[in-house]
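Re: that backbone. Tokens:
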């Protein structure tokens, strides 16, 4: 069944700019529409979970699997440098979470819903048990899944995620008011974001060329709702998990304060705290070598597990 609202792709270069490679098959659907079946587009593969179509990147390898979960406004491809650094040791699989990247939107944008998506993904692909690595919102999804389904998750890497995000100075809500829906060129979209003081480098990973101009693969209203669902005190869920955990804090983080990071590490058993200096919230991009080093060192000290074959 074809897409209800296919992305425009009259020129191969437009698709290459959107997905990172030319597509061997049909064009991806605009978020909100859905196409039956699997297949790969620009490296992404697709799976249906709970009636929605999800995109993911499987970077391959024979090592133990690591499920990587991006933050708000992101997509799985941001973990390509980490996957390259871990190649030969670990198999990194990065999911486009609901409403992000090439995955469908719709439904609720709460942490339990995100966690259930990730659990269904691991079960469907037969990847469990798999270490979880989550950045920002993805970190909160990771420890919610670890709490809800500890059988799936032997270890956690949580990167610049806070459990106390209800205070004004750490309220993780990016104001999207006034963002353009479409612009004529990619550069115009980037310039418009810069005028709003938005970190364009991260967001432009989710820029795409549609039939009516350049915009984002996510819906800004959905992202506002999702961010609001993340506000509050998440300490109880974090502290209730028992898996070995690596908590990474960016030295210049605007989200995870030093005091909260220390509290997260001391109140939860089996947690190691590492601060990566000279890095901001998007620490995997600001300090990719240090980020990969600490992730690899943590994973290397875990007991080796292999996925349980899916029934």
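Recovered sequence:
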């Amino acid at each position: 069944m074809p897409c209800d609202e296919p992305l425009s792709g009259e020129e191969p270069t437009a698709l290459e700019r959107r997905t990172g490679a030319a597509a061997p098959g049909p064009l991806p659907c605009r978020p909100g529409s859905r196409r039956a079946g699997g297949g790969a587009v620009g490296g992404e593969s697709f799976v249906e979970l709970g009636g929605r179509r999800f995109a993911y990147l499987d970077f391959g390898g024979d090592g133990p699997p690591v499920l990587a979960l991006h933050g708000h406004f992101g997509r799985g491809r941001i973990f390509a440098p980490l996957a390259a650094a871990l190649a030969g040791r670990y198999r990194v699989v990065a999911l486009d979470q609901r409403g992000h990247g090439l995955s469908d939107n719709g439904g609720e944008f709460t942490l339990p819903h995100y966690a259930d998506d990730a659990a269904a993904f691991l079960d469907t692909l037969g990847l469990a048990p798999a270490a979880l690595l989550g950045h920002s919102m993805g970190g909160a999804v990771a420890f919610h899944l670890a709490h809800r389904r500890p059988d799936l998750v032997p270890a956690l890497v949580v990167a610049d995620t806070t459990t106390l995000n209800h205070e004004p100075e750490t309220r993780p809500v990016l104001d999207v008011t006034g963002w353009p829906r479409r612009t004529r060129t990619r550069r115009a979209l980037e310039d418009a974001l810069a005028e709003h003081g938005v970190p364009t480098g991260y967001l432009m990973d989710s820029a795409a060329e549609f039939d009516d101009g350049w915009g984002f693969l996510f819906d800004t209203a959905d992202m506002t709702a999702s961010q609001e669902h993340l506000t509050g005190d998440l300490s109880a869920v974090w502290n209730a998990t028992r898996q070995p955990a690596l908590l990474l804090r960016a030295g210049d983080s605007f989200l995870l304060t030093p005091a909260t990071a220390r509290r997260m590490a001391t109140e939860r058993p089996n947690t190691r705290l590492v601060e990566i200096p000279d890095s901001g919230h998007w620490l995997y991009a600001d300090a990719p070598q240090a980020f990969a080093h600490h992730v690899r060192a943590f994973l290397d000290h875990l007991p080796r597990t292999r996925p349980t074959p899916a029934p």
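The chain is about 30% helix and 15% strand. Residues 1-41 have pLDDT under 50 and may be disordered.
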